[in-house]
Specification:
There is one protein chain. By secondary structure, the protein is of the alpha+beta class. The protein is about 40% helix and about 25% strand. It folds into three domains: about 170 residues, no CATH class; about 120 residues, Glutathione synthase, substrate-binding domain superfamily, eukaryotic (Rossmann fold), CATH 3.40.50; about 90 residues. The protein has 17 helices and 22 strands. Strands 4, 5, 18, 19, 20 and 21 form a six-stranded antiparallel β-sheet that branches. It has a four-stranded parallel β-sheet with strand order 8-7-12-13, covered by helices on one side. The model has no long low-confidence stretch (mean pLDDT about 95).
Length: about 450
């Protein structure tokens, strides 16, 4: 794998003058702390070391995305057309009702981040599909631009052409193109980035708001509880909203439905263009990993897509019903990871190999018949990375998970987290690594 050789070259470069690059790392820490790369009020943790990808990797990612989006569309269409198929998802009547509303444009999932463990070539396994509320584009691009200004990468750029995968302006343009298809009038929409205040990634929302404004559009950030539906239009105070960039994750929208009756009524009446619509939840809920392996799902896929599912989508089952299921999972601790149907940021996720048998059993008892899935555990791939700790340079082997950003059904860029633990997420010990294309 060419990227691993390039990665080692970078490590050798930084190791050739650790004192110089340690001082530069400290400067870089300050730059990130004063940037928009903020999550939950704190600077995003990062390393003085990006994730390197080659053109061959990108070709592979594009192939994966094309296959996945074909599967996504076939599953979505089956959901929309088959009452029996819909039962598999166990959605509430409200959610099912909202999913079935026509979104007014021809894309089922306008934006997604499909996360996977990637070892190069055909050696990869998907672990999570994020559609509604897909995030972290700003993290990647902001830290990436800052790292490209470091002394180490400036030196490295004498050997290779290095570039980030631009993720802000390209998505803004795609949102507008989706609106133009929805409206078909050539008008200029008033835009609202909508999420619950307590849940939103405020710094990223500001970046997108400013990007819309820079392109000549009115844009605001709004809590759905503050929106009112009157005279056939959705408003924030006197600001008419034509286009909603939805950052509310679906489970929270349904959970707080009683608090946002105007937003839901306006959505039902198609009073605004919503990017993305509620139908993206079909692929977002983790139960899709179980459903993809069902025979009646496989039969609607092409032979190539069936092979893709069997090889690259982990076997997943419902953790309820027959007690034999409980015993199977209990007695194969290191083989499984447990996931709630629909929580974000890895909340509620735990892996058997991280727990003693007693801890595992206790957790399983609490999860039994509680909307949990068991999934085959896949050991993350690793790479060596430069880590500065206690004013000292170390090279650590870290586990990685990457996310493929998908805009309008095409590969757009990458999000990478690395860590020491089996679960690599924003609520565990992790680092975000910006992703660079190396030519």
């Amino acid at each position: 794998m060419e990227a691993l050789r390039i990665n080692q070259e970078y490590i050798d470069l930084v190791k050739s003058n650790p004192e110089k690059y340690l001082e530069d790392y400290k400067i870089t820490l300050d730059k990130v702390a004063n940037s928009t790369a903020i999550y939950k009020g704190k600077p995003v943790p990062f390393l003085y070391h990006p994730m390197f990808f080659t053109e061959e990797d990108v070709r592979k990612f594009k192939e994966m995305v094309d296959t996945l989006m074909s599967i996504t569309n076939k599953v979505t269409e089956r959901y929309l057309s088959s009452k029996e198929f819909r039962k598999k998802f166990e959605y509430s009547p409200l959610l099912e009702d909202l999913i079935l509303i026509d979104n007014g444009y021809d894309i089922n999932v306008p934006i997604a981040r499909y996360d996977l463990f990637y070892g190069g070539d055909d050696n990869f396994k998907f672990c999570e599909f994020n559609t509604d509320g897909s995030s972290a584009m700003n993290e990647d691009n902001t830290i990436g631009r800052i790292l490209l200004e470091t002394q180490a990468l400036k030196e490295f750029a004498k050997r290779y052409h290095l570039s980030i995968f631009e993720l802000i302006d390209s998505w803004v343009e795609d949102i507008i193109s989706i609106y133009n298809k929805w409206s078909n009038k050539g008008d200029k929409p008033n835009i609202a980035i909508v999420d619950f205040t307590e849940s939103g990634t405020t710094s990223e929302f500001e970046v997108f708001k400013n990007a819309f404004i820079k392109k000549g559009y009115n844009a605001i950030i709004a809590d759905p509880r503050d929106l009112k539906y009157r005279d056939g239009k959705l408003y924030f105070e006197d600001y008419r909203i034509d286009l909603v960039y939805r950052r509310i994750v679906t489970f929270e929208l349904i959970e707080k439905a009683d608090e946002i009756p105007d937003f839901i009524e306006a959505y039902r009446d198609k009073a605004f263009c919503c990017v993305g619509s509620l139908r993206s939840q079909i692929m977002h809920n983790k139960i899709i990993f179980k459903i993809l392996h069902d025979e009646d799902t496989l039969e609607i896929l092409s032979e190539k897509e069936r092979e893709f599912v069997k090889k690259h989508i982990p076997v997943t089952g419902l953790f309820k019903g027959d007690r034999e299921v409980f015993e199977k999972v209990l007695n194969n601790k290191d083989k499984y990871i447990m996931k709630p149907y629909d929580l974000n940021a890895s909340r509620g996720v735990y892996a058997g190999k991280d727990l003693s048998f007693e801890e595992w059993k206790e957790r399983l008892e609490k999860s039994w018949n509680k909307d949990y899935l068991y999934q085959e555990y896949f050991e993350p791939f690793t790479r060596d990375h430069i880590v500065f700790e206690d004013n000292e340079l170390k090279v650590e082997t870290l586990k990685s998970i990457i996310g493929l950003f998908i805009y309008k059904e095409k590969f757009a860029g990458i999000y990478t987290r690395v860590g020491r633990l089996s679960i690599i997420s924003g609520i565990t010990n992790y680092y975000t690594l910006p992703n660079l294309l190396v030519k």
